[in-house]
Fold this protein.
Amino acid sequence: MHDKDDSNRPERRSALIALELSRLDIDIAALREVRFSGEGCLQEHGAGYTLFWSGRPATEGNHPVVGFIIKTSIASTLESLPTGHSDRIMSLRFPLKNKEYSTILSVYAPTLQAKSGEKDRFYSELRHVLRRTPPADKMIILGDFNARVGQDADAWRVVLGRHGVGNCNDNGHLLLEICMELQLDITNTIFQQKDKLKTTWMHPRSRHWHLIDYILVHQRDLRDVLHTRVMPSAECHTDHRLVRCRIRIRPKPITRKGGPPRKKYNHCRLQSDEIKAVFQASLQNNFESDSSQIDPSPELLWDKLKTDILQTSEEVLGFSTKKNRDWFDENNIEINNLLAEKGAAHRAHLARPSCLLRRAAFRHSCSILQQKLRGIQNEWWSNLTIKTQQCADTGDYSNQCMAPHTVSRVLCTVQTVRYSSRA
């Protein structure tokens, strides 16, 4: 995951975030600072999510990267992959019923301390992307705008609701101006609720909570927004709280492929002598039953033999289930226990944020989770490499864990993991 040796970020943060989103039943989430370079995607099979990101090449240094993490079942319905317009703006076009579409943007605006030229360039790119969007599409913008829009609903009556938070700053004026220009509504300010369900980020020095992460929709689609609120219980290894928006849309139904899925027999069970003996005995009994009444012609004998082999394979061997080997998913029980401990410490910290002992206990649980995950990863890769090498030495390629040409790459990966853990 491109971590430094002294990084406090747990291994496979994408998998941890996917598990948290699955717990909260989030279909599509916008991410920032994904820590990947270039453009690409990554599937988290255990939680059922797919991560897409867009950023600058690795040769240009460390820059903010935006992305989406989408349920794999939804990602399979996309007609095209998400498009990265820059390292701060990424969009996807989501098909709906009746040949309608919804365009969703993931954005990451410059901070308040950024130069005015950088801010102008970002909002110019955002205007360009929004104006190129088909007018009939439902527009949804998710992201960290690093802006405080305040609560002056009378001055910004069209775009700002009556339940804002705090005062407006310079970045907030830029955001309100583009919302007024493009007829966008800030959904975070239209629902009456407690401030802790609206504020998303705490200033590290003043310790005050602010609303800087927003979900924007077109004014004509505001009737489809059911609720927008912060999820304080979500722990996604970031100093920002998760904002969830429930929107009433009708996705395009998934088209099923014709014909039943093709099943494969679990032939690996024949490696056991006991299963092999049972298979041979069952096959012989099936073939000898009523064999005297069968016409001895080759065609009928072949049909009888094929039917008996298939029937015996289904009864004795069963069908194999496709499973991608992964250290995170195969240690799901142990990792869930670690996440439960960290979640309990996080909830205790949320109950009393001013308690230094609870805050220290939560940080300690995060550190323990990081150490345990790296240990699980090292042990899994070491065991897989040893088993693969044993299969290659004995010529048992049918039971080999992976293709022979990948063994050297796995050995290099394990050595890299070991050296990084010793640093």
Observations:
- The chain has three domains: 13-247, 267-317, 327-422.
